[in-house]
Amino acid sequence: MLFLHSVDEYEKMKVNEGTEDEFTAHGYHRNNLRTILFWLLCIITGGIVWIVLRWYPEKRARFVNDPCSLSEAHCVTIYALDGQKYVEEVKEVSVPLAEDQSTVHFESDILKDLKMRYFVHMFLRYRICCDDTVHEITGHDQMLSKSKIDELASQGVSPTTTNFRKAIHGSNHIEVPVRSFFVYCAQEAANPFYVFQVFSFTLWFIEGYIYYPCVIILISLTSIVATAYQTLKQMQKLHKMVGQPCNVQCLNNVGEQVTKCSIDLVPGDILLIPNDGMDMPCDSILLEGACVVNESSLTGESFPVSKKSFEMETDVTYHLEEHKLYTLQYGTHVLQARSSGRYVRSLVVRTNFCTLKGRLIRRIIHPKALKFQAYREAFRFLGFLGFLGIIGMIFSFVVLGRQGQITIGELVVNSLDVITIIVPPGLPACLSVGIIFALNKLKAHDIFCIDSQRINMCGDLNLFVFDKTGTLTEDHLEVKGVYQKEDEELVNVRKGDQNENNLLIRGMACCHSLHHQDGHVTGNPVDTGMFDFSKWSMKETSSESDFLQSMESPSTNQTITILKEFPFESSLQRMSVIVNEESKSESQPLRVYMKGSPEMILSFCVSGVDESIFQFLKEETDLGHRVLAMATRTLSSDADVRSLSRVEIESGLHFCGLIVFVNAVKDASASSIATLKDGGVRSVMATGDHLNTAVAVARDVEICRPMQQVYHLKMEKDNLVYSKVKCVTSRESSVQLSVASTESTTVFIERDSPKLYLDYCCALTGDVYNEIKRNHKDLLPNVLLSTSVYARMSPMDKSMLMEDLKEIGYSVGMCGDGANDCGALRAANAGIALSEAEASVAAPFTSKVFDISCVPQLVREGRAALVTSFSIFKYIALYSFIQFFGVLILYNFKTSYSDWGFFMADLILAFAFALAITRSKTSSALAEKGPPGRLSEIKTIVNIFVQLIVLLVFQILAAIFARRDAFYQSPEKMGEIDFGFYYVSYESYAVVSMNFFQYIWTVFPCYTSEPYLEPLYKNRWFIGIFIVNLTLVVLSVLAPADFIRTIFEYPTKISQNLSLIIIGLGLANLFVLLGIDWLVQKMHCLKLCLGKINALLKRRKKKANYKIVFNRLSHENWIEDSIKSE
């Protein structure tokens, strides 16, 4: 039997569970009988089945295949978390035997069978095991211990092992699929809308209707070509960014140096990096020496970074994200490699799309599906129009069939024509023109977009998340002061003091990740600022086994050599170094210096800590200053430095002092935040900085309003507690509130405004945020709605924050500039990058103005684009209904529009007005609230429904008055039959003329201008088209010239009374339409009634919408209530 098995009989396999790449896989194997049936259906339907199932590949797979286990499958259907569906072919590759290389985790399983079954999804390979499990083939960094790394580094890879691993991992090249321009045109033309256009144009050409279809074809072709060209340029840019294969030097399994093409690199290869640098063709672990690397193309950071040779504790497993200090990544440029020889060695661990660069590229090529309510509703509405078109087609078939004198072919074509009327084929062209104008408006403000579909989404944004450093504040940091701990007080150390024995100054001179480049010391701005303050100098030397950095004091009497470095990690908030301090007068023991966030450093100190430090720290961070702490301890001179772990040295420390930095707020930050606030867009900060510093900057830019109480949420013994953060000017420390506190909190809500204000906000750290997500999920909506400052947030925390905010109904924007923001920029509904590096390519929008003034402009243009698209959509929909009603009415009288009548309606009137709407200029001010982000607002539905009734009534009245005219004659007596119709008729004159007026009048209730666009009278294109079209219509009704009568096929004798009646009905129609629109928009009782209907509909939603949570928070003090319940 054809349908023997159910998909449910076989287990669905979840792959990459718990990650953003999670998907479900289903297996299918071929069914020859179903395949034959499929191709027969394709032939019988003229390719329609093939086209439809091309849009739904998973349905095609289910139709032509039988479900089966994954181990038996010939293809798999993939269901991603974002709702996208894919079908991938299962491949089998024979794997050659590897004789001389130890295997890594899954390779031993493949060696047993010498073959591998896999499928490729979004450029990554997934291995299908015998037990039906699926595993992503990533590289050699999974479960890679120190001993395994040492084993792999002891020898290179033989040719047989290269072939073995290449068969598993594929060629080492990020192959961006740049297809020809014509292929991209064909892919765009396969869009359902364009396919429907082909169907419509075919019918129209059969009927002899040529002019309007030709214009729409021209515009649609222009849109297809423009979209294809944009796609081609983006793919070419990505292809250029990836780079081309090159020859590299490697060590083989017997230690000989060989030349190999970078395409042939496999995990386990020993790559030799020359001293003058190279572009990295893979991800690799640095085994010796050191490298200075420019990672700007990958992370967006403007300064080079240092990479150290691999050092890891025995019981620690290598992880690429956690051990970036030792990892050279694909696509980065090694500026210098330092070693005693000509090369430094590195161990290849990841290749092709498994690398970080590859994953970024594939995310750009395969973005997550857009979840924009307006788009979904637009497609649903078009589906509804299609349903009405089918009803109209059946009605037409019955009515025309009863009247006789029409062939079957004419009957079918005229009936199908109704569908092309109610579903407007010109809609994509009109919307495409609107998007093109929106892109040009953004470009005029130095904002560039690589994903035009997101422009309309910017109009629905109601929350924007900002990074701090480099976004709200300047990139550079200036050392404001250095404070050493002396005799239970902090003493200011002035720049230039020659106290070379000062431990704090010595720590500033050596506890960093700086390096020499072109005769200058370069690196992170924080490190360079500290090093410059110390006045010490740097020397770099290489030995056979290692690369060393030495710091020399200003007097050259003392030298500090860095023996081992534990790099800064965001999750740890600190870095440490082990140094050898040498003096010409005496030898000294080894010493450890550790710097990082004050709260982290102080937690490791056993001496030198008192309350004055916390008070000083509070004062400086309240002022928005960035503060780092330094601590130190000594080690035995005979300690084995290489074997010491981080845990062993980071204990028993003595506090040295604090370094205070000034990070100035950018001039545009405060004014832009205020503009967004006035425009109903909430602003939130997410930063990796100290909480108090973040709160101070948030107050400066008024993310936290001046009179707003800030609560610091924190965890104590698994319980959520809070303290009040006092205003900066009060200089008071935070006071812990008791659980039994009865202090009330008032919530201010403007009922007629989109801005819902609390008189307090919250600030918390990434650790607290994660703890709430894990153990206090019921409080998460409250936290998200009341928190304005998220501090100590890791890149992953920022990305999760975007998802959580979207989950409760926010439409979220993100603005950032650095490596930490790439994930969040992609996760937000609209991300704008203040960077011209690769992070900008990963974000939908890029600003060449490096401050957040671009954000209000983006929101303003987004709102203008959204209301423009809505206006066009509503107008084209009403125009289609007008023509739909008119044609069905005329079918009853066995008449219809003439070809030129359709041309006048479709092109000169409707299409011209749709284009005029797109030419409206954006309002100079950001409106107090955004436009509705949905088409299904009850107010819009009621407005359109009532207008449709009115339009239909006036068309019927026009037909009635035409039949009562003194000169009236039936269509049968007026002219010849053409394609089954008597075109010359009084009914046609009256209804078509009435339709012409309605095409003009419906622009006004559909056109939304203020406060998002400039007033209608300032749109010169619209005014010009309105005057010309109204004049043409009035003349065609009152005094049609002979050529007008001929092309529109009007009767030769039309009474003046009928003409005046049509004019009067037209004017009455206008006033009724405007009156209905005014009633719906302005009448308080009607608004109240519609609002209650809207509320009832929204209550049916299962998700906790943020507005509902705001209403709940207006009646309770959730902070105190939640703490009491703990």
UniProtKB/TrEMBL annotation:
<feature type="transmembrane region" description="Helical">
    <location>
        <begin position="418"/>
        <end position="439"/>
    </location>
</feature>
<dbReference type="GO" id="GO:0016020">
    <property type="term" value="C:membrane"/>
</dbReference>
<keyword id="KW-0479">Metal-binding</keyword>
<dbReference type="InterPro" id="IPR008250">
    <property type="entry name" value="ATPase_P-typ_transduc_dom_A_sf"/>
</dbReference>
<comment type="similarity">
    <text>Belongs to the cation transport ATPase (P-type) (TC 3.A.3) family. Type V subfamily.</text>
</comment>
<feature type="transmembrane region" description="Helical">
    <location>
        <begin position="1059"/>
        <end position="1080"/>
    </location>
</feature>
<dbReference type="InterPro" id="IPR059000">
    <property type="entry name" value="ATPase_P-type_domA"/>
</dbReference>
<feature type="transmembrane region" description="Helical">
    <location>
        <begin position="181"/>
        <end position="204"/>
    </location>
</feature>
<dbReference type="InterPro" id="IPR044492">
    <property type="entry name" value="P_typ_ATPase_HD_dom"/>
</dbReference>
<dbReference type="GO" id="GO:0046872">
    <property type="term" value="F:metal ion binding"/>
</dbReference>
<keyword id="KW-1278">Translocase</keyword>
<feature type="transmembrane region" description="Helical">
    <location>
        <begin position="36"/>
        <end position="56"/>
    </location>
</feature>
<keyword id="KW-0067">ATP-binding</keyword>
<dbReference type="InterPro" id="IPR018303">
    <property type="entry name" value="ATPase_P-typ_P_site"/>
</dbReference>
<feature type="domain" description="P5B-type ATPase N-terminal">
    <location>
        <begin position="20"/>
        <end position="96"/>
    </location>
</feature>
<dbReference type="Pfam" id="PF12409">
    <property type="entry name" value="P5-ATPase"/>
</dbReference>
<feature type="domain" description="P-type ATPase A">
    <location>
        <begin position="248"/>
        <end position="362"/>
    </location>
</feature>
<protein>
    <recommendedName>
        <fullName>Cation-transporting ATPase</fullName>
        <ecNumber>7.2.2.-</ecNumber>
    </recommendedName>
</protein>
<dbReference type="InterPro" id="IPR006544">
    <property type="entry name" value="P-type_TPase_V"/>
</dbReference>
<dbReference type="GO" id="GO:0005524">
    <property type="term" value="F:ATP binding"/>
</dbReference>
<dbReference type="InterPro" id="IPR036412">
    <property type="entry name" value="HAD-like_sf"/>
</dbReference>
<keyword id="KW-0472">Membrane</keyword>
<keyword id="KW-0460">Magnesium</keyword>
<dbReference type="GO" id="GO:0016887">
    <property type="term" value="F:ATP hydrolysis activity"/>
</dbReference>
<dbReference type="InterPro" id="IPR001757">
    <property type="entry name" value="P_typ_ATPase"/>
</dbReference>
<keyword id="KW-1133">Transmembrane helix</keyword>
<feature type="transmembrane region" description="Helical">
    <location>
        <begin position="1021"/>
        <end position="1039"/>
    </location>
</feature>
<keyword id="KW-0812">Transmembrane</keyword>
<dbReference type="InterPro" id="IPR023214">
    <property type="entry name" value="HAD_sf"/>
</dbReference>
<dbReference type="InterPro" id="IPR023298">
    <property type="entry name" value="ATPase_P-typ_TM_dom_sf"/>
</dbReference>
<feature type="transmembrane region" description="Helical">
    <location>
        <begin position="872"/>
        <end position="894"/>
    </location>
</feature>
<dbReference type="InterPro" id="IPR023299">
    <property type="entry name" value="ATPase_P-typ_cyto_dom_N"/>
</dbReference>
<feature type="transmembrane region" description="Helical">
    <location>
        <begin position="981"/>
        <end position="1001"/>
    </location>
</feature>
<dbReference type="GO" id="GO:0140358">
    <property type="term" value="F:P-type transmembrane transporter activity"/>
</dbReference>
<dbReference type="GO" id="GO:0019829">
    <property type="term" value="F:ATPase-coupled monoatomic cation transmembrane transporter activity"/>
</dbReference>
<feature type="transmembrane region" description="Helical">
    <location>
        <begin position="900"/>
        <end position="919"/>
    </location>
</feature>
<feature type="transmembrane region" description="Helical">
    <location>
        <begin position="940"/>
        <end position="961"/>
    </location>
</feature>
<feature type="transmembrane region" description="Helical">
    <location>
        <begin position="210"/>
        <end position="232"/>
    </location>
</feature>
<dbReference type="Pfam" id="PF13246">
    <property type="entry name" value="Cation_ATPase"/>
</dbReference>
<dbReference type="GO" id="GO:0006874">
    <property type="term" value="P:intracellular calcium ion homeostasis"/>
</dbReference>
<keyword id="KW-0597">Phosphoprotein</keyword>
<keyword id="KW-0547">Nucleotide-binding</keyword>
